[in-house]
Amino acid sequence: MLDLGFYFALFMRRLPYFLIFVVAGTAIGVSLALTLPPSYTAEARLVVESEQIPDELAASTVRTEAGEQLQIIQQRILTRDTLLDMANRLRIYGPRTAGVGLRPDQIVADLRNRIQIRTSGGRGSATLVNISFSADSAALAAQVTNEVVTAMLEENVRMRTGVSGQTLEFFEQEVERLDQELTNHGAQIIAFQDAKKGALPDSLEFRRGQLAAAQERLLQLSREEAALNDRRAGLEAIYEANGNLNALARQQSPSAASPSQARLRALRERYSSSVAVLALDNPRNRVLKQQIDALEKIVEEEQQAALQAQVGGEVNSETGTPLSLYDIQIADLDNQLAFLTNRRAVIEAEMEELQTSIDATPANTITLNTLERDFAAARVQYDQAVVNRGRAETGDIIEALSKGERISVIEQAVPPAEPTSPNRPKLAIAGMGAGVMMGFAFIVLLELLNTSIRRPKDIVDKLEVTPFGVLPFIRTRRDRIRRRLLLTLILCGIAGVIVGGLWAANTYVMPLDLIVKRLTDELPPWVLDLLR
Question: Mutual orientation of helices 283-310 and 259-277 as an angle, nearest 10°?
Fold first, then answer.
């Protein structure tokens, strides 16, 4: 059975140690409660508003979600340079911390810890932002909080206008690039068409028609050349047989037409029939017209030669004697054969050129189709880029007029009337409670380490001997007074040392709130919540 009386006696015996810890803890708690400066927390509230213009009418080009946007803004306004500039401009660390010598890293870490940005809502509800700052002055807390609010609003506008401006700039560059690409493709097509002017697919049928007409002309020339050779051979045979052409002249009527005239008449009839069916500028009609013009010149020359022969105006250039009818007709036939030979060479050259261009047309068609396909693809991209540029211009105007998603201030930060920390009664009670727990722990530790015999039960348990009686230790009145006086002096000395040490540290070393701040940075979060 638990001997409560014995343990109470032990506690009373160790009471001085317990009181030392209680007094020390209470002194520390009360000293901190009295010396720690008040901390004021100012708070401002913001709301993220949706677009002012429906997306169906005009959409913004900034598609960042509200939560992501707030996180980006928070990281940007809490950068090292921004916080150091704010601390210097608003003199957040005034004379009280002038002698402490905080490093820039410590200032940045302290400001990031004191500036609280909390978001709530979203996903179907309004997104709210609470911004707070803690300082030892109510006015400074409100000033810094409003400064953070201003920085957040400016950063939001800067970020959204920057994104919309970059989008517009990108599409402007894209339109310019695609326009230049279209120009290059068009120039390539024009240059290719100029270089392959006679071998393009759009004139393939026309060139095939020209080739067929040339083949037909070549065949006609062959027939005419054969007829002229037969006539020349007949004239030579008659001349060799009779020695003159009188027999042939008697057989022919004066009005008989020459082969050139007969062929001219036939070509004119063919041309009349072709004009009735085909257009005047048809390649076949143009070829017939050229042949008619050439034969008209030949017929005119023959008529002039015949007239000169009749009047005896022509003479042989070698002998000086007048030309006979045989010589005139042989010369005429030779001229016609030479003309036909020249025409054959010209037509064959034309046919070779046409055949070469026709053979090259398939490859040119593939190349031209490739160029035109590239041009069409670039045109589609260009048209789409122009449409996107128009949307980007609309989105940039929306962001410039703040008609898109924006952050608005619901409530500005005002200087708080009462400090939010420290909770002085709780701090004093916490110090006393810590002293009580440490006192109990110290007593328990002493008793666990003490193995001496202090009651009859210990004799029975350890020596297995039952004592006849027990004589207690009795202190005199003088011993009790001296013991109590010594305990009182020790407690007063401990309290004085603690209070004096805290005062000296606060005055000559570092303000207590900064010391406590450094110590609390090392504590777990649940302990900080308990102290608050």
Answer: 160
